[in-house]
């Protein structure tokens, strides 16, 4: 069984790597989160992540820290499946999760968005990947 931890070695802290990530990385959104990711050279960990919440929308540190805690927890619980797939394919990535919502979302909403993002990240390097993540269809009346 995998330990569902988020040790320092999996945290993205290098300013140089973060700058390269924003200058040459790919991105996509799953409201209220946006991910910017980039494939990197082999390292000690298959995935390194950082989390950010804009000060412009959430003025108090308490509000920003709450959202970052929720994002880290959702990432921590879902990353092991993605990391295993990336290891099998010999891929290493760095990513930054950015909170884009205008109001603070509850944990369930953040967990759902993080799950969609991680599902798509798990498909990196998969030659058969052509479909979108599963979701419930809405019937229109």
Would you kindly provide a written description of the structure presented here, covering whatever features stand out?
The structure is a single chain. The chain is α+β, with helices and mostly antiparallel strands and 141 residues long. It is built from 3 helices and 4 strands; from the N terminus they run αβββαβα. The protein has helices at residues 15-24, 61-89, 107-121; strands at 26-30, 33-40, 47-52, 92-99. α2 (61-89) packs parallel to α3 (107-121). The radius of gyration is 15 Å and the shape is globular. The model has no long low-confidence stretch (mean pLDDT 89).
Highlighted features:
3 helices, Ribosomal Protein S5, domain 2, globular, alpha+beta, single chain, 4 strands
Outline, from the CA principal axes?
Answer: globular
Helix content: 25-40%
Tell me what portion of residues adopts beta-strand conformation: 15-25%
What is the mean predicted local confidence, pLDDT? 89
- Biggest sheet, open or closed, and with what strands and sense? 4 strands, mixed
CATH architecture field of the domain at 31-121: 2-Layer Sandwich
Coarse structural class: alpha+beta
SS elements, strand count: 4
Trace the largest sheet across and list its strands: 1-2-4-3
The count of helical stretches stands at: 3
Order of helices and strands: HEEEHEH
Spans of at least 5 consecutive residues whose pLDDT stays below 50 are none
Q: Give the distance, in angstroms, between the N- and C-terminal Cα atoms.
A: 46 Å
**Top CATH class of the domain at 31-121:** Alpha Beta
What is the fold named in CATH at topology level of the domain at 31-121? Ribosomal Protein S5, domain 2
Radius of gyration: 15 Å
